[in-house]
Design a protein that fits this description.
It is built from 7 helices and 13 strands. It is α+β, with helices and mostly antiparallel strands and about 300 residues long. It has 2 domains: about 15-140, 2-Layer Sandwich (Alpha-Beta Plaits); about 150-300, Rossmann fold (3-Layer(aba) Sandwich). The strands form 3 sheets. It has a 6-stranded mixed beta sheet, with helices on both faces. A hairpin with a 3-residue loop joins strand 4 and strand 5. Helix 4 runs parallel beside helix 5. The longest helix has 23 residues, at about 125-145. It is globular.
């Protein structure tokens, strides 16, 4: 899969939603209470360096931003063509922040950012404003999740704007994971050559490590390997789509902790009459179609996400 919009000029005008994460996902930038973020000393450095971005390049108009405990979201409008591509300026922001934080903690090897970042290109104003709303609401959602972990149990007839309404959905976990503006469907076909399979697995794992939310059935060997690897990434989030009903579903092992920590959402668009075993391969293929449909249901336009190294 390639999420880069090849025809887009990253030195031209544009509306962007930027996400970059702490490596590993450590809560060093802020704490959340009263549904607001309260910055730590390191979070204040991130804020100051982000604001410096506009002073460095006035063409970049900074909009909404939020410094969460272990990641950063910001929206930018490039109001005119840029002298250099967007990645150059985000790289400067990350580099200045890293240097200032290492100086503040008196540790020249202190780990700050994950490699690269994600940008989402918003191709209309409505989508851009939806990203801004997502950022503003992030602290409230996180506090609600942290305070209500025991409430994450099986919900029948679950509803969310992204879920196709022609099916009855059952959910276990934090359904607000569907609020993230762009989800990434994971499909790794069984008949791919081994080198292509490994390339696809690495692609999805890298996206999860930088903050993307993956969605899929995780049924083929390649997809199972993606699930296995991202389970070891602190803070990685995933949405499982089961190709059967959830009449007898109960989370087991580490899945219980991941659901309680709002890192995993389990969904089924199949009725309880569809048994868990044996696996129905027609359902599996249809499940892949559902993952693509849910990830595409932004309903406000087209977004493209890419990872920049």
């Amino acid at each position: 899969m390639n999420h880069r919009l090849r025809e887009h000029d990253y030195s031209g005008r544009g509306f962007y939603f930027i996400t970059t994460t702490v490596y590993p996902r450590r809560p060093i930038f802020s704490v959340i209470s009263d549904y607001k973020t309260h910055l730590t000393r390191l979070g204040e450095i991130v804020r100051d360096e982000w604001l410096q971005l506009h002073r460095e390049q006035p063409i970049l108009e900074l909009q909404e931003f939020e410094i969460m405990p272990d990641h950063f979201h910001g929206t930018i409008i490039a109001t005119s063509p840029l002298p250099k591509p967007l990645g150059y300026y985000i790289g400067n922001f990350k580099g200045r922040t890293r240097q200032a934080i290492r100086k503040a903690v008196n540790d020249p090897s202190y780990s700050v950012w994950s490699k690269g970042f994600f940008d989402i290109i918003s191709l209309d104003a409505d989508m851009f404003h939806s990203f801004r709303h997502y950022i503003k609401d992030n602290p409230r959602r996180k506090q609600l999740r942290d305070e209500n972990r025991a409430l994450f149990r099986k919900v029948r007839n679950a509803e969310h704007p992204r879920l196709p309404q022609d099916r009855k959905w059952t959910a276990v976990g934090d359904i607000s994971l569907l609020d993230y503006p762009v989800l990434v469907p994971v499909v790794v076909h069984r008949r791919r050559p081994p080198e292509d399979t490994e390339r696809a697995i690495n692609h999805f794992v890298n996206m999860a490590g930088t903050g993307a939310i993956l969605i899929g059935g995780f049924i083929s060997p390649g997809e199972k390997e993606v699930a296995r690897r991202i389970a070891a990434i602190p803070g990685a989030r995933v949405i499982y789509l089961l190709p059967h009903g959830m009449a007898h579903y109960k989370p087991r092992g580490k899945a219980i902790d991941r659901i309680a920590d709002s890192q995993t959402l389990v969904l089924s668009g199949f009725g309880d009459e569809i048994p868990e075993t044996p696996i129905n391969y027609d359902n599996c293929h249809f499940n892949n179609d559902l993952a693509r449909a849910i990830s595409a249901r932004v309903d406000l336009g087209l977004a493209v996400v890419r990872k920049i190294h």
